[in-house]
Prior knowledge:
The chain is α/β, with parallel strands linked by helices. Helices cover 42% and strands 19% of the residues. It has one domain (7-124): Response regulator (Rossmann fold, 3-Layer(aba) Sandwich).
Amino acid sequence: MTRVKPFVAVVDDDTSVNRAIRRLLRSIGVAADRFGTGDELLETMRSIPSYRPACVILDVQMPVSNGLEVQRRLAAYGAPVIFTTAHEGVAERDRALAAGAIAYIRRPFDDELFIKAVRAAIDLVPRE
């Protein structure tokens, strides 16, 4: 049986942030796909049933659907969520964590803390 290496979906409308997060993930051997909006990710997951990231890294504030709305819609897929944000928002953090987010990390973040959160999220996903 072939083992599929887990991969992460990074959803952020800021291309430079998205690129930096994917570069950090690559440095620890984790592949990552880029999405500019949560709707792009959700459409991919809906249209390709086998597309299941081990973890979704979401920006909180994005155009169209914000991260909290995307998290709510992702619940049907069971993908662990890690939020990153440049904005201080205690209410958003509390809602995200109450809805099951693995972590809510403010940017700029400590790389080790972020990596620890990603590894914890990936370990939650059962492997075949």
